[in-house]
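Sample pair:
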Amino acid sequence: MASDPRQNETQVALILGPDSTHLESLISHLMSSSNDQRSQAESLFNLCKQTRPESLLLGLAHLLHTAPKPETRTMSAILLRRHLTRHHDSFLWPLLSPAARSSLHSVLLSSLQQEPIKSISKKLCDTISELAAAILPDDPSAWPNLLPLLFQWVTSPEPRLQEVSLLIFAQLAHYIGQTLLPQLSTLHSVFLRCLHSSTPSDVRIAALAASINFIQCLTSSSDRDRFQDLLPLMMQTLTEALNSGQEAVAQEALELLIELAGTEPRFLRRQIVDVVGSMLQVAEAEALEEGTRHLAIEFVVTLAEARERAPGMMRKLPQFVRKLFGVSLNLVLDIEDDPAWHAAVDEEEDAGETSNYAFGQECLDRLSIALGGNTIVPVASELLPTYLSAPEWEKHHAALIALAQIAEGCSKVSSLALLFLLLTGYCDCDFGLFLLLCLDLCFVCCVDEFHRFAASVFVLMLLCCAFCVKPLCTVMIKNLEQVLSMILNSFRDPHPRVRWAAINAIGQLSTDLGPDLQVKFHHLVLPALAGAMDDFQNPRVQAHAASAVLNFTENCTPDILTPYLDGIVSKLLVLLQNGKQMVQEGALTALASVADSSQEQFQKYYDAVMPYLKAILVNANDKSNRMLRAKAMECISLVGMAVGKEKFRDDAKQVMDVLMSLQQSQLDADDPTASYMLQAWARLCKCLGQDFLPYMGFVMPPLIQSAQLKPDVTITSADSDTEFDEDDDSDTCLEQGGMVVRLVMCFGVEVGWPRLGFWGVLLHCLFEALLKTAVLDLHFSAVNLPFFVNLWVVGPSGFMIYIETITLGDKRIGIKTSVLEEKATACNMLCCYADELKEGFFPWIDQVAFTLVPLLKFYFHEEVRKAAVSAMPELLSSAKSAVEKGQSQGRDETYIKQLSDYIIPSLVEALHKEPEVEICASMLDALNECIQVSGPHLDEKQVRSIVDEIKQVLTASSTRKHERAERAKEEDFDAEERELLKEENEQEEDLFDQVGDCLGTLIKTFRTSFLPFFDELSSYITPMFGKDKTSEERRIAICIFDDVAEHCRETALKYYDSFLPFLLEACNDEYPDVRQAAVYGVGVCAEFGGSVFKPLVGEALSRLDTVIRHPNAQLPDNVMAYDNAVSALGKICQFHRDSINATQVVPAWLSCLPIKGDLIEAKVVHDQLCSMVERSDRELIGPNNQYLPKIVAVFAEVLCAGTDLATEQTVSRMINLLRQLQQTLPPSTLASTWSSLQPQQQLALQSILSS
């Protein structure tokens, strides 16, 4: 662009003058392949936009009419859309005069009416829709002739006009759906007519899209029901496209229907049998294209996964579940015996696997998770044995692969028990389902309270098992062994791919059933895997056997593994020396796991193993050996941790020298060495402890660099030929697209409506990317459209992202997950170093804090956030330890205050915006630890922010639980869904637990100054005492009051009237944890309540007596409550002696001693006993030293336990008291007391008193 302003004005005037050829030329240059020409054109275009925006837009609109070249009209439509999209940075509509706006309205609509080329028409539809979306929500009359004209076109006899009007209606549904509600009857009639079979397929697809979009935007179920009669016509659009051989049209219809299944599954409920039946017919039609069949299956799987909107609906169609499982299983049969697979080259790992095979695996996995074991197990048990007994190796292979795929979804105990019963013929499907019904009924009763009815149902179930099959526990163990034997028999199958699949199944079951499988069946599995490692003719089988050893040993204890170590280690060493690279890599990974699981037992093999590992580390320098070297690094570090610093020290120095050399070399960007090295350094630090400090200056710079990596996210043109790097599985764009869509949904917590600019553009990019099925994989679009639509529906409640890392080109999404994984690893390692090195980590605290604190809100990757959260208290602890030990480079307590002021508010802010319940719990845990370290440094404003956030957490949790309760009322709700809700509610309980701990720490830290905040929180805490709340909520509420009573003492007395009745009632709660908290609180109130507690002493004694005298009081589950009740009774004896019958109560208390379950309370109680003996407490000693033998017996038991049941000081006092008794008691009394002791107690006391 020329620098002379006059020349600029002249050029702009020429371009926007009456001769449109100059603007056409500019548009042409904008599309030029010459960078210089395109850059100059962009500068001129921007100048026109800045100086004469109205003329520019009208000129572009004029070109839609007059430009002879289709590409010019196309580009004009695109540019107009960009500048008429409300949330685009270049939104120019507000700058236009009313006359220009009116003119633009008319030109856009007339251009659309006249445009003959369909692709340009669709872009014009987009432009018109964007403009309508920008202006109509605020002022429905801003484009007065738009809707009338659309209704006119949609009833036109011209199919082209029908289609474009429907396309615009489809998009407007998202923007002004509620505005169109008065036109609902008219729209319904329009859709009904346009979906009719007599209309062209393009019109029907447009009508299908519009219908589905309107159904999604309708909030009223009655409004949605008015569209029910459209559903048969929607399905007819699909079937007629298939019948006429138009599979591309059918696939468009399927994608739209998948969207409906994911977002509004309840709309399908009334006709679910017909709809699902039709889809399964398509899925089974082998004459159709793979893509079509896969989309039909995807529809049904998506329906099964739509549990939040239609829980259990698909589980009520067992006949279709069986058919779908069979179809998916049949897809897994589509595998070829490719010679490349046998060659065992990493790049050919999937050789012979077809797209059918991969999709079938995925469906089995998703189905088992979505429907649960109770639904899938009976189906699997019916089909899999048939496959296993067939002569074809493909069927054996498919059955074993299926077993591995469904293991996760069916890993609940009841489901697995039934699977083994059914697979081995111990019961038929009908009886198996009856057993599951019994289990479910028992579960329903036990979820809320363990009523007698629940017990009776469970007993009934066991009786049924006793009469109809062998006792369930015995049968389950026996039949798991039979199922394993069935799989292990396939280790000897003639076909290596079947053997591989059998090993794969064992590996998966080892993960999903661990550690029970390891404990019971190590004698079967480990020898079989060791034998499979001898299959030198099939190295891929060998390598997979080594991998399965890893799966198995991950859940092994050293005592299980030790008897097999000689054989396993020797075989792995053979593979390291003689195997192919793939086998060597598997052997290294297995060896690392074996070492990690066997710990010090591995020392025996260290000298034999380490030379091989170091040789690989030093010599595996070729590019092809990079993963081998990386795995050697991993193995060495895990072996070092297993055997300990003393054994590993000398080799560690050599290994670290090699790692330093590698780190200084220029590693390729895709070299796995870097990521593995990050973890190896951290393990070496954990092994060597403070001896690792000299290496920290070398380790930290690249580690910080990895932690600071920006997410590599791209959105490229759906029409471009740009290919994403697919060399690395984790980098494949299309496989990760769904992840991006889900990520975007998580960002709704960050920024409000004012930040819609980026949001709107991103939404549109996502939408177009997902719809460009001509370029994108159909399955990817089908899977992820529902997630995107959910995103669209929930709207921009907020969004924050590192925008500079996202390219908003035209429209394909990619994310390089290997970058995120490296970042997550680095963040975890930083946390590990801070934890391990304590004050030694001080020099890096500032740099690490400034790196990790922003990552508390890194929504691209959960592991990054989790690592950042975990590191916060570690950084504060390191700083505090360094200051206290004088290793803080001259910094004092002020530094801890500064660091705390940076970390804690950031953590609270991140908690406010965190979408994942599990991470919220982790954040509260970290916040609690941070307060423990630096609580005194918090000011009132910071405490206020923490308390306000705790309120928000409690409110949000209550809302989620209410929503789940509403879901439980759905007509499709069933036992599987109840189990899933139970798991979700357990996460909420963990959250409440962390809230309780956090409040407890605040109370302990600030004591009476926290009470104003406690007053605010009371309205949140008091409802938690309700009987309708879970036992965990009641326990937490009680613990919070316990802390207030204990640490605020006299100033907490005003709360006794409100809270003590809850405590007393909870003393006899059916849940031991609640009882423990309650009786502990009674003891606290007895100690500090003074005259306020006195009127309640009688009731407290009664409640405590019930706990103590219960016949099962000292069983493991109840002993903590028992011990705390005894402690509370002792405090009543000590502080309210005048309110009790001391001659009865004190001896009763003594009779309960010693207590041995709660070691903290044991120390308190036994110290109290010691004090009472020292002052010769009359009621304790009893008339004529009546209770002295009991006292001595208690002392003997306590002393025999060392310092477990008493502090060193109390132990010393007890010994002194016993020596005094030896000297002062009459010999006859002493002899009588001594004779009452057990022989071992007498010996112990003799030894203690004589030393």
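The first strand starts at residue 713 and ends at 717.
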